[in-house]
């Protein structure tokens, strides 16, 4: 596994937001990417609670090895999807609607992804995906998560780690009083505290 990937924090509270947060910052033009290629995408998704099972991940890795060019094309689409979702959720966190172009793109992507769901009967019926060998499977899962969050997530709990001290990561604030401000204290909150402390010291002439 690549070293960046092993360090990544999943603090978004949902699969689609954790996917959006796969670069170190949304504000810093020199931000680093955590996912370098399709196999990283699989590894990352395997590490998510509602991500990929080990068997499917291994199977898809084999398909990717057999079709490297197709896997690279899917990974390029995944990057575009990541940027699209970043814009859509950042707008929503600010109480804005997405641009018409982004809404169109999201509609196209979501409709195509969700067309691969099949109802599976059982004590409780559930959705499954129609094709375990499709390289697009990670994109479908991310899109299903995004649709779910847009439909059922509480808008006031969708937040963005704030500029200038924060990183722009998006997260669902599940705290009781909705007081969460940072993606995580370790990554952004502590740095902001230190900077505020130093500023106060400077202001006090200390
Ligand atoms: Zn942050």
UniProtKB/TrEMBL annotation:
In terms of InterPro entries, this protein maps to: ABATE (IPR010852), ABATE_dom_sf (IPR023286), Znf_CGNR (IPR021005)
Family annotation (Gene3D superfamilies): Jann2411-like domain
Name the Pfam families on file: ABATE, zf-CGNR
Output the superkingdom of the source species: Bacteria
- Which residue ranges does the record assign to the Zinc finger CGNR domain? 157-201
SUPFAM superfamilies in the record: Jann2411-like (SSF160904)
**Which PANTHER family does this entry report, sorted A to Z?**
BLL6575 PROTEIN
Q: Mind telling me what this protein is named?
A: Putative RNA-binding Zn ribbon-like protein
């Amino acid at each position: 596994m690549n070293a960046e990937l092993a360090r990544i924090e999943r603090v978004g509270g949902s699969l689609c937001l954790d996917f959006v947060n796969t670069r170190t910052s949304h504000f810093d033009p020199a931000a680093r990417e955590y996912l370098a290629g399709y196999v990283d995408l699989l590894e990352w998704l395997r590490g998510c609670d509602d991500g990929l099972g080990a068997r499917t991940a291994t199977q898809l890795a084999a398909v990717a090895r057999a079709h490297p060019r197709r896997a690279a094309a899917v990974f390029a689409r995944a990057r575009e999807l990541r940027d699209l979702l970043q814009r859509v959720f950042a707008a929503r966190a600010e109480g804005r609607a997405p641009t018409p172009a982004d809404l169109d793109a999201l509609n196209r992507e979501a409709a195509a992804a969700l067309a691969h769901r099949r109802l599976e009967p059982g004590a409780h019926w559930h959705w499954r995906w129609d094709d375990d060998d499709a390289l697009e499977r990670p994109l479908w899962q991310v899109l299903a998560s995004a649709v779910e969050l847009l439909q059922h997530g509480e808008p006031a709990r969708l937040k963005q780690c704030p500029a200038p001290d924060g990183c722009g990561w998006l997260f669902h604030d599940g705290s009781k009083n909705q007081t969460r401000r940072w993606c995580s204290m370790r990554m952004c909150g502590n740095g902001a505290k230190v900077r505020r402390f130093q500023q106060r010291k400077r202001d006090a002439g200390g």
